[in-house]
Amino acid sequence: MLSLAIITFMAIIISPSYAQEPDKNSAKARQNLNETQKDSTSEYQKFISASEMKISDNEKDLSDLKVKHSKMNAKEKATYQKKVSDLELKNNTLNKRLVNYKKDQENAKWIAFRNEFNHDLSGFGKALKDFMDDNKLK
């Protein structure tokens, strides 16, 4: 009974010392995590800059469209202005979504937001381009 107590006591004292040795794999994993976070932040900044530039270009195109309706009758002008206002509202909504997004630590949410936002932004760009092309004929 005494020897069993001594062995248990020694096991309790010795086992925590093994866990305190630095693990080379965990140190490398921490380093990789830090590098991944830096890359993710850099990618996030590039995405934000590129998206802001596209939204700004859209705003310029929309302001050009506001000026180009002098040769239309009243009904065409009203329809044209409504469409330009709708496009402007969509562009402002995209800008608000971009500004209000807070980068999560969770990479999956960031990727989902980026993909959805890129899809919506490219869809808007196509709609704007189609509208501009349709109104060049008039």
Q: What do these coordinates show?
A:
It is a single chain. With 138 residues, this protein is mainly alpha-helical. The protein has one domain (24-136). It contains four helices and no strands. The chain has helices spanning 2-19, 24-67, 74-100, 107-136.
Strand content: under 5%
User: Number of folding domains?
Assistant: 1
- Structural class from helices and strands? mainly alpha
Rg of Cα set:
29 Å
C-alpha termini separation = 102 Å
Q: Helical proportion?
A: over 70%
Q: Give the overall pLDDT as a whole number.
A: 80
**CA-based shape:** rod-shaped
Number of strands: 0
The count of helical stretches stands at 4
Largest sheet: none
Topology order in helix (H) and strand (E) letters: HHHH
Q: Which blocks of ≥5 consecutive residues have pLDDT under 50?
A: none
Briefly say what this structure is.
The protein has 138 residues and is an all-alpha fold. The protein contains 4 helices and no strands. The chain has one domain (24-136).
Summary tags:
mainly alpha, single chain, 138 residues
Give me the secondary-structure topology.
Blueprint: H1 2-19, H2 24-67, H3 74-100, H4 107-136
Helix pairs in contact: 2-3, 2-4, 3-4
